[in-house]
Specification:
The protein is α/β, with parallel strands linked by helices. The chain folds into two domains: 180 residues; 110 residues, Vaccinia Virus protein VP39 (Rossmann fold, 3-Layer(aba) Sandwich), CATH 3.40.50. The protein is built from 13 helices and four strands. Strands 3-2-1-4 form a four-stranded parallel β-sheet. The longest helix has 19 residues. The two termini are 39 Å apart.
Length: 309
């Protein structure tokens, strides 16, 4: 997807807030709905081709009395996540009453895999559903994200181009940036400017560039925010290795204490198609790096951070 199309798509989603949430939320709270709904719609589109296979596998596992189903269901979905509810988002459009829509939407959310549940819980998205339902806005919100003029799927739909993982991640990060900019009190608290991050990455890698060999490298950010520093560090290391004819693999690890910021970071990793990295991001209010190190005893090849102190 080219930059003009991506910008149009980002603006469309940005404007959903004014179309649906005006008079229901103050502007500073739009993000509480738009960010998790963007994540949900993308995951829903990614999972649609394997939905039947997941439901079939779920039924077979239940019949056999298998309790640890996560690996099998991930394999059935061919993704690092899945949904075992009988619904896709589009199935919820025709509900006759707000109560039925609310009940089925909650059942849909409950069907997601544990890693997505973790994201939803840290977004506190379920707390928004009663308010959206009471304002008769939930159905309209779903319809807007299913609009025929946009495609959040990794596959082409009609004349609409596919939205690949990189473009999806770029769009999501742009939405986060706009919301941070709009809420001035949060700007800079959990997001470091990209030019500063690139400088940090170069300062870390360039002095040892001649010592980088082919192999696997572990990168760690102990105050990872929305994950931008890890992403830029990974890109920089990959570029340096490639320029020297080395083949490397990278694994990202991070810890973040802010619930919503952690949810954004983990969601961004999933949206970019990196389920392993998403599983290596730990966070929430109970996960202070100083008092509750999630990676005690693990060693990393490179570490960078911008702690908010």
């Amino acid at each position: 997807m080219d930059s003009a199309q991506l910008n149009w798509l980002t603006n469309f989603i940005w404007n959903i807030a004014d179309d649906v949430l005006r008079d229901v939320y103050v502007r500073g709270k739009y993000r509480d709905v738009i960010l998790p709904m963007t994540v949900l719609r993308r995951l829903d589109a990614v999972l649609e081709p394997t939905k039947a296979a997941v439901l079939e596998m779920k039924a077979a596992l239940d019949k056999e009395g298998v309790t640890n189903q996560d690996d099998a269901l991930r394999a059935a979905s061919d993704q690092a996540f899945y949904n075992t509810s009988p619904f896709l988002l589009r199935d919820l459009k025709s509900r006759a009453t707000q109560q039925k829509l609310k009940d089925d939407f909650e059942a849909y959310l409950d069907g997601f895999s544990p890693n997505v549940q973790d994201i939803l819980n840290n977004f506190a998205f379920r707390n928004q559903i009663p308010k959206l339902s009471k304002a008769d806005a939930l159905g309209m919100l779903i319809e807007k994200f299913l609009d025929k003029d946009i495609n959040l799927s990794p596959h082409p739909v009609g004349d609409l181009p596919a939205l690949d993982n990189h473009s999806m991640g770029t769009m999501f990060e742009e939405l986060v940036r706009r919301f941070n900019e709009e809420n001035n009190e949060e700007a800079g608290e959990h997001w470091t400017p990209r030019d500063a991050v690139r400088l940090m990455a170069n300062l870390m890698f360039l002095p040892v560039a001649d010592r980088i060999e082919s192999g696997t490298y572990l990168l760690y950010d102990c105050a990872c925010g929305t994950g931008g520093m890890l992403t830029v560090a990974e890109e920089t290391l990959q570029q340096i290795a490639k320029s020297r004819g080395k083949q490397i693999a990278t694994h990202l690890y991070g810890q973040e204490i802010s619930d919503e910021t952690y949810a954004i970071c983990k969601a961004d990793m999933l949206l970019k198609g990196d389920g392993d990295a998403a599983d290596n991001i730990v966070g929430g209010s109970e996960h202070s790096t100083l008092s509750n190190d999630a990676f005690r005893g693990r060693e990393f090849d490179f570490m960078l951070a911008n702690p908010p102190y």
